[in-house]
Amino acid sequence: MRFVKKVQKPLMIITLVSILALAFFCRLMSNIRYETVIHEFDPYFQYKTAIYLNDYGNEEFSDWMDDRTWYPLSRVILPTMYPGLQYTATFFVKVCQYVLHLPITILQACSYMGPVMSVIGTLFSFDFGLMIDDSDDSKFLTGLLSALLFSIIPGFIQRSVAGSYDNESNSITAMVAGFDLWLRACGCADKKQINTSINTISPILAAIAFFYMGFSWGGFAFILCLVPLHVFVCFLSGSLTKQIKAAFMIWMPVGYTLMNLVWREYGFVFKQSIALPGIGVFFLLAGLELLENINKLLTPTSQIALKKYIILLFSSLIVLALPVFYKVGLLSKITGRFLSFISPTHAKSHNPLVASVSEHQPTIWSNFYFNTWFLPVVLPIGFYFGLLVKPSTGSVFMIIYLTTTTWFSAVMSRMILLASPAAAACGGYVISKVLQALTSIKVKNSQAEQKKYDYMSSKMKLIILSSAVALISSFIFSFTQHSLWCAKYVYSQPSIVILGSGSVDGEPTYIDDFREVYAWLEHNTHKNARVGFWWDYGYQVNQVGDKQIYVDNMTRSPYWIGLMGAILSSPEPISWRICKDIGVDYMLVLSGAASGYNGDDIGKFMWPIRISGNNHFELRQGYEYFRSIKERSYYNEDHEYRVDQRASHAMKNSMMYKFIYHKLDEQFGQDAKDMVRNSTIDMKYANKMDLFQEVYSSERLIVRVYKVKDATNF
């Protein structure tokens, strides 16, 4: 027994270091298979701003107005972004260059941000596992299993692989760190005695982690609600301790004050409706503390009467004050994105621009299993152990965290990111508790039969325990295998370079059409040439192609994004006039018709139609030449969305149809086919183009560029 205790700690350290190494190296497959490259579309804006901060310094970065995007409006950068990611990357570069003497570039710092931050997040996930399990016998196993599951869970890997330089790559780590430090502040680490220094320092550290997340990602609103909700649930359940009250009374003012240092275009955090839960709980705790001190001077009857008056007064103040605060501008209205979590259909009917983003769509059930594997199966067991068997401050927090994020991720697929750390912690907690329960099984026998059945009892216990360990090991092995497969084949493929189906000799084929066209734009067009396109590709065209653009991937202006949609949705004369009115030189589209690439523009054409139609340009002064854009016009007489011979007249006459299928018959012959939709195209409409001219198409016709002709050319 003494030997087991002696090797337990070194073995735990070795296991934890191995898990940290796994968290780092499993995320490098992208750079190994391709090169050091930034993934997706949004990260190119993060990369561009990181370059600017690294090259010009903080003062220039703070005053930067980028006139290369959102022409002619321009974009004031700092108030319209969360700069924590950029400052972290610049910090990495400085530390590597001046402390470690490693000459890394800003591209390498940005590319490896996800793997490095995932290692730090895994370390905090281990400690978070210790906080949610208050049993000394199983807490270290819970911590190790939580760290293992978190390090490779696909829901987190998708935003933390090498090259995935986006807000979430460091914010999820900050969130887990903040939750871990919050539970430490609540006393989950020290249950036997109260240590004053820990009670003071831990809430401040938790507030700093919260500030760093708010400095890096808009998901800070989740913490803004979850921590007050945890305190409120503790209050309702009667488990609110002085330590939790003291922790929140420090965390809330420090965290909210720090968050006001984040300069955003919509104002301070105290003016946002999302801050109300924290403010309300703060005053609730202050009132409770005051009530406790007054109660010492009152009789029991007076105490009950005072409680009733306080509840009535508090409720009346809320009902009367909130409308006044909204009216005078002290509080902002509830945002559309927040309402989308309450009502999933809100965005589609009120803000189709937000609803058009693929990651804002509701999650299909298969995605839960794909991104968390078997963990949804064990969650009910976690509820059983955490609420019914032995509830604690940590386990209650875990269940609140898990419940809220499960709902959010069901409404919006992107929120699986928030649910993944909770699912990993719950999975580790359940496995640890099941093993603890099995090891404590006792088979009761009568005294007369004790000797006879002693051997059989221990043998049965060994069989049950061995079977459980084998089953759990197979689960963990299956989870690891699935996660590493996702890391290699699903989440390590950058959108800017496409992996083809492979050549005849089995070698992988890399399709580099995007960078081919961006290089053509950079070297063959005027530096200030303006390019129009659907808003998904703005950051890449602006950063890689070095072109002036009208819209980027920011959901800033439905008006300008709607104008781009109107160009694509309208007939050629109207589209040409819009281009001339706003100064478009080139139009860029994505087409999968010739290659089978299924992420093309006509596949998402309904969103440009809805967003441009929702702006009702035909009713605006100066846009009398616009034709009303209605979604039903683009369905045929059978109410079908088609691109073949049976497509609607509005569809065939739209510039999207012509841009995508123009001269496709030169690739296929007379019967030109769309390989994505397996449809024969009506080339009579597609080839009729007078006011635009094709100037460049990539090797596989995935990216196509058209020049807007001058008026004298026709």
TrEMBL record:
Residues 11-421 form the Oligosaccharyl transferase STT3 N-terminal domain. The chain crosses the membrane at residues 12-30, 138-157, 194-213, 219-239, 246-263, 269-288, 309-326, 368-389, 396-416, 422-441, 462-485. It comes from Spironucleus salmonicida. The keyword Acetylation does not apply. It is a multi-pass membrane protein. The keyword Transmembrane applies. Its cofactor is Mn(2+); Mg(2+). It is found in: Endomembrane system. This is dolichyl-diphosphooligosaccharide--protein glycotransferase. Pathway: Protein modification; protein glycosylation. One of its GO terms (cellular component) is endomembrane system.
